[in-house]
Amino acid sequence: MKNILNTLLFSFILLSSCNKDVLDKKPLDIITDETVWGDKILIDSYLAQIYSEMYFFANESTGSGWPGDAWVEVYAVNEVSDECMPQWRDWEEALSKWRYKHGNLKISGGLMEYWGYGTIRKINEFIDRVPTSPLEPEAAKGKIAESRFLRAFAYFAMVKRYGGIPLITKAQKISDPQEELFPVRDKEETIYDFVISEIDAIVNDLPETVTSANIGRPTKYAALALKSRAALYAGSIGQFGTVQINGIVGIPSAKATNYYQASYDASKAIISSGKYALYNLDANKAMNFRNIFLVKNNSEVIFAKRHDNVNWLAGGNGWNVDFWQCPRPHAWGRGNNDGAYLELAEAFEHIDGTSGKLDKTVVEQGLWTTDELWANKDPRFFGTFYTQGTPWKGDKLDFHKGIRLPNGTIQTDGSYEGKLANGNQDFDGTCLGILKYLDESHDNMAGANSGWATSSQDWQIFRYAEILLNYAEAAFELGKTADALDAINQIRNRAGIATLSIITRDKIRNERRVELAFEGHRYWDLRRWRTAVSDLSKYWSGIRYILDAQTGKYQIMIVDKIDGTTNVPQFRPENYYFPITLSRTGNNPNLVENPGYQ
Amino acid sequence: MNKKLKPGDTYAPILTKLSRIMRLMILMFILGINSLLAASGYSQSTKISLKMADTRVEDVLNQIESKSEFFFLFNQKQIDVNRKVSIEAKDEKISDILDDLFAGTDVKHQVIDRQIVLTTTSVTENQQQGKKVTGKVSDSSGASLPGVSVVVKGTTTGVITDNSGNYALSNIPDNATLQFSFVGMKMQELFVGSKTTINITLAEDAIGLEEVIAIGYGTQKKGNLTGSIGSVKSEELTLAPVASTSNALAGRLPGLVSLQSSGQPGSDAAALSIRGFGSALVIVDGIESNFNNIDPNQIESISILKDGSASIYGSRAGNGVILITSKRGKDQKPIITLNSSYTLQGITYMPKPASAGQYAEMEREKWLQAGKPIASAPFTEEQIKKYYDGTDPQYPNTNWYKETVRDWAPQQQHNLSVRGGSDKIKYYGFFGYLDQQTMWKTNGGDYSRYNIQSNIDAKITDDLSIQLDLSSIVEDRKFPWRPQSSGANTVWQDFWNTLPIYPAQLPDPTKLSFANGSGTGGVHIITNSEIAGYNNTANQNLKGTFILNYNIKPIKGLSAKAFINYVQDYSKGKNFTKPIEFYTYDIASKKYTLAGALGSQAQLALSRSENRIVTGQLSLNYDNTFGTDHHLTALGLYEVIDYKNEWLTTGRDNYLTTRIEELFAGSVETMKNNGASSEMGRASYVGRVNYSFKNKYLIETTLRADASAKFPSDSRWGYFPGVSLGWRLNEESFMKNITALDELKVRASYGSSGNDAVGNFQYLSGYRFSGQWLIGSTTQKGLESTGLSNPDLTWEKIKIYNLGSNFSFWKRRLFGEADVFYRERSGLIATRILTLPNTFGASLPPENLNSINDRGFELVLGTSGTTRQFKYEISGNISWSRAKWDHYEEPVYSDTDQSRIYKKSSAWTDIQYGYLSDGLFTSLDEIKNLKFNQDNKGNVSLKPGDIKYVDTNNDGILDWKDQVKIGKGTTPHWMVGGTVNLKYKNFDLSTLFQGAFGYYSYISLDHGTLLVPEEIYKLRWTEKTNSANALIPRLGGSTTNSYVSDYWYKKADYLRLKMLSIGYNVPKNIITRYNLQELRFYFSATNLFTISKLKNYGVDPEAQSGQAAYYYPQQKTITFGVNLSF
User: Fold this and answer.
1) Could you read off the pLDDT of B827-866 as tens digits, one per residue?
2) Hey, which residues 373-402 in chain B have their CB within 8 Å of chain A?
3) Going by C-beta distance under 8 Å and a sequence separation of 6 or more, which residues neighbour residue B668?
4) Which residues of B, range 214-253, sit inside 8 Å of A by Cβ?
5) Residue B344 contacts A, CB cutoff 8 Å
6) For residue B1112, with 0-12 CB atoms within 10 Å meaning exposed, 13-18 middle and 19 or more buried, which class applies?
7) Which residue does chain A place closest to B589, by CA atoms?
8) Distance from A364 to chain B by nearest Cα, in Å?
9) Quick check: B775 and A48 CB within 8 A?
């Protein structure tokens, strides 16, 4: 009896000692706070995470779905502008942008959002902790400058979307006072001033150039480029916008000149540094223009998002431009994700500087070869678009829809005398694809679930041509027309078209539209110029090529309302700012909604 | 042993794990040795030593009982046990000791098996001389019943019937009453009177009061249950073969909410939740496991603990517990059973694809009705005509459903088991095989499973018994590589994007025909694993349990048990995708055009995962009856569970050839791999005391102390008490006269428990690798904070109250069970993000913030009866449950509409808000006269055929404020089930009806915008019909048509014939010639027909809301089978 009780007692004691082993478990995949902040490499990893969350670096893409440019969100900013339309509209992802363009930017928001306070908190924490880390003071200073550049960029990405927003420059604690935790919106100009003053504060802490192992980190000139762009935005909002809700949106017009001057100065500092030049190595001007976006780290690149050819899903840094924008054949039988509007193609002048607009009546009457149709076009046209007859992978792209029989009727299916009635490209779209950034050697037949984000071309966040265009615009608005003319002519000269003798605001804007097409500028430009209500509330057109069976030439049709609806695209005055949205105002009643949204 | 670790200390985990197992082993060893020592001397001539002075005879007898295997039977009135004696014996035979003890009295002792019966020859207290009574006990079929206890009422005198059912009792006075009792039989009492031979037939206990039901860490007689516990027996589970056991449970148990949302082989289990609480804890033979991959034939019984009775499982028990007990050996000659069945599976409801003509017509109609230019419309009238006509080969009409889906997919299930044993050793062995094929016609894959089990019970000595259970489940899932699950990027998306206007084959058979199929070429390609590649998974579950059970003799009724279980789950995945090119073909020019490709190079992905759980339990059990009235049982248990999980993935791309499907053949540059591991642990102390007085008043109290490694050490331990009371009114003397009454019991219970499903280690903060960024040419890994930590995080706390009753009248002509419950859940995990602006920049840690309360009731009513040839049992059950948010972490809504629509606190958890529709517009005038702005564009986008909404607040514009309640959630509130079991001669018929009510489903047939389902063609509004009640609005209609509204959100109520089984037992006189015990042929069917409004859309009512046509459809089955035992 006693034995047994002893045994039992002993057994219980024995087993109870298991408790500690069983219960004191540690997660095997978490790295502790001390480890991270005590290790230089891990501190860099912390910063790498901040970069990786700055999705907007690549053409304003968002973090919805797949982060950044691995997914089609990367084209949204082009698709909601007057540059192009999404063509895979049997697909909800594409349809949402198309709807948005047709008046669906409402209080619920939803597209191209960037409410980057998560990243800003990380940066604030980083700035807080780096000084006490094992980093040497000089290195710490550099890292802080780098992170302040990122924070300024994040605020710029937000202010251009929402107008004034709360400016938070320290990592908040739950115990902080309510008025800090529930901040009101700062004025729009406060945010622009913050961006500019931050750059002024750090510009000399950033390196003149980076080593090859550090390409992708900002230099002094990347910071100046941000200032050049941000101050230009602030200047035009001051000049063309209206101050509303006590300056939470809008900038007083009196301040416009100061901002233009700041932009002008920043651009000038970059230009006069002599570190950058317009890319101009190829004799063939069209090829030269294409190569700006294919040759990594060329003389024009100021700041770029680096890419490699490894799919983001597989832990790499590839993006999807080739898989999405390529002509056919394409793994999904698609390709040609975006169809460029004919109006944009027409904005490209002729080499001699004459208007590129097609005369509808003339064009639709005759039969044309593509060489005839696009004769003497700005070489940048051939570097920006692909269309009927564009050479591609040893062949010529075929967009034709229908075949014109000798009796004049048009056959739309089957074949005629061995010629297929339709080409193999997306002939129901605008028939203008986007060639800019496309790598002809990329294999676009890759698997359905992999390989779609394997393009390795770097995305150029700031390139020298933009600085010249910023410079021209700021100079023009400041009345320095000679500076403006010179900058624009540098661009035109490199492009291979006639230079101008007189500069106008329209000329500068058109040059910007053409040179920077599909680089994520147009939508924001139309907004800050306050011309979007007229420029984005109209129909656009596309082109049709009908093969003439006898001559092999094409009958041309200009298709109006190519978006395929009777509803006119719509950009309402309130759309100059995104809505704060109900969820954010519900979340913090101190945030006032932007005017016009309800 | 209790090693203290300082932070930063490292040690080899394997060693400590080993030592833990070692400790358990040592423990078992010690227990084993002890018991062997204690029992080693046993024999009929057992010798013991005693030294007792001035002791009562009774104490001496007790001492002998405790030192031997013997126990005494005697009549206290006859034998003076209070007599004081002194006795000293050293290694003497018991019989000699007894001779000494009773020397000088008339007490005689007689050894019968292990009972020592003490009798007197004299008559005391005017009692007449007893006589010998003998007899035989048999069951209703006439078979003898061994092991029946025969006791003289009011005494401890009694015997147990021998192997042929005979008994003999001496010294029985005429005025005595004999009680005959046996598990599963109704207790009977007989007055002896003048009889000396009493043969008796015991009737089966139809009410099942003596039936033993599995409860937490033990069993309980059904009649003595105080909690709300439902149970299903093996026979009911195997009426119609199902691959997933959960599907055999639907409709059988009141309060069990089930929804089978997929018919995919190997993944077709119904989601079960007890009383709508959410996923319950499933315990199989004492171990937390999955039960859907267990062959239903292996299962002895299933119990579900619905109320406080689950509290004994503590922090995991909040949603109730499902207990599965597998079959074990029996003290009988071996019976070998063979079950074999062949099943055909067909789709219940699924929309069918439209024809080429219908498709082309709809595409054009949509284009034109959207107001797009006629010139660029996708099909011309002439083309549509040709597609309808079908004679021009340039205009094919392919029925892809016919091309790729089979009407009936086969399934077969076979199992062989053997069950038998002696009183020393009992065994149960099982081998089962299942193969379930998919609906795809060509190389579409299958699910196959092997179940192996061996359960051994052995009595090592009279005090020590062991149990050794070993089982293995091997599952193979072989499917084409594209996911078969649901939603976008699955084979269903491909299916509905495969267009009928493309031919099924091309003249050149080596070229695959392109039919769109969202980039995959078409469903004919992607469902064929030979062409497109495959995704195979093999799982192996190994489980071993070793149990030692030891009776601690010095204390009557006390036993100790040690339990150790080891589970290992292995999973292997192999995903091989092959490159495919597909073509379009022009007949006139005989030209092939490469339309696309799926993968340029083959890819292989392999995965391995390993899951290990070690469970150890040590328990003390006490079970004793004091006098005749007091029955006390108690349990004390200590449990530890240790979890470990590891996984690894690897793969390569760019295979030069698809013929080698091995890792080494891929390109080295594309090698990739990943892996991780995790650990978890639990420790618990469990206590339970049951007391019953006169079998009338029952009380059960439980207490569990639970600790989980998921939580910080300060908030790790939780204490979960429960108490339940029962009153068996039919045992009351004042009720005894009511002959109509078989059973009447009322029960009340309270229990507290928890839910720890909150993720592991949420209380810790640190960093994890997350994003990546390229600097220079090096990919930098991003480090992301795991978020602010909450060191106080703990499990949800749950309290449940239950009131219930069991009743039966007129020998079960009417029987039933009723329960009502109320449950409070507090401390649900939520983050405060909703009340702190997101400018804060970090997600706040999860906290125990929200609370919910549930309420509901269950009712079962039935009738049964037996005549000579005919046996029937009909019963129905109905249950209702619903939950309300008590507190929901949310902003304070100042806007009344926001508050009305979004506020969750104090609202039902499952209200759907949306717009109210009012049919379709049928005329332009109707739109012109509309008093409000429906589309926010002055109604210019509206046309006849668009949905007309109601401006519920009459403010002249349709906006979010007009949303009202349009229905409830997508999980049923009302569940009903009905069974009819009939037996006539050798035939048996069982049916099970099952239904669910009070829930909704979002119906959308066009996922994306391709118009393939024929139902859309048939149900759509057209200009011709111009019906306000068409189920699909005009194609290409206003964007307002896609608003969430009652137009799409539909009641999904249904009633279906879940199961039907008709069997024929070959008569005994025939089969005994072949030495067979049983031979039964049967036909069974599941989901044979359904009553549901969603049929109009071709949608099964159990379809996942919003995924109609976009998931593997539910199956109906037809089975032919045979059960054979010998």
Assistant:
1) 998 887 556 788 988 878 888 899 999 999 999 999 998 8
2) 373, 376, 378, 380, 383, 394
3) B652
4) none
5) no
6) buried
7) A418
8) 15
9) yes
Residue numbers in B near A566 (CB within 8 A) = 371-372
**Cβ contacts of residue B267 below 8 Å, gap of 6+?**
B484, B485, B1112
3-class SS at B836?
coil
- Those of residues 453-492 in B touching chain A at CB distance below 8 A are 489
Per-window interface: A 54-73 vs B, CB < 8 A? 67
CA angle, A25 then A31 then A37, to 5°: 140
| pLDDT level of residue B1036 (50, 70, 90 thresholds) | confident
- Between CA B466 and CA B217, with CA B227 as vertex, the angle to 5 degrees is 15
Chain A residue with Cα closest to B6: A24
Best residue in A1, A13, A14, A15 for a mutation probing chain B (most B CBs within 10 Å): A15
CB burial of B142-174 (b: ≥16 within 10 Å; e: otherwise) equals eeebbebbbbbeebebbbbbbeebebebbbbbe
pLDDT value, residue B42: 40
Residue A447 in tokens? 């698997």
Residue-level length of chain B: 1126
Q: What is the pLDDT of residue B18?
A: 44
DSSP-derived letter for residue B1097 is G
Span A213-237, pLDDT tens digits: 999 999 999 999 999 999 999 999 9
Shortest distance between the Cα of B776 and any Cα of chain A, in A, equals 4
- Please give the ipTM for the structure prediction: 0.91
Rounded Cα distance, B1 and A15, in Å: 10
| pLDDT of A499 strictly over 50 | yes
B1096 and B1124 Cβ atoms separated by less than 8 Å: no
Amino acid occupying residue A115: W
Residue B780 CB-half CA count within 13 A: 26
Q: How many CB pairs under 8 A join A and B?
A: 326
Take residue A114 and report the two structure tokens written for it. 């960037």
Residue B637 CA to residue A178 CA, distance in Å, equals 50
- Residue B4 has a pLDDT of 40
Question: Are the CB atoms for B495 and B522 separated by under 8 Å?
Answer: no
How do residues B163-219 score in pLDDT, each as one tens digit? 778 888 888 888 888 888 776 677 777 888 888 888 888 876 655 667 788 888 988
Report the SS3 class of residue B273: strand
| A405-418 CB burial, b ≥16 within 10 A, e <16 | eeeeeebbbbbbee
Q: Which residues of A are less than 8 Å from B1110 in CB distance?
A: none
Note the pLDDT of residue A151. 98
pLDDT range class, residue B737, cuts 50, 70, 90:
confident
- Residue B75 in tokens: 């009549």
Q: Do B620 and A103 touch (CB under 8 A)?
A: no
Residue A397: both structure tokens together = 């792209």
Q: Residue B373, preceding bond cis, omega within 30 degrees?
A: no
- B65 three-state secondary structure: helix
Paired tokens of A268: 């000038």
- Which residues in chain A (429-448) have CB-CB distances under 8 A to chain B? 443, 445-448
Phi, psi of B631 (to 5 degrees): -120, 125
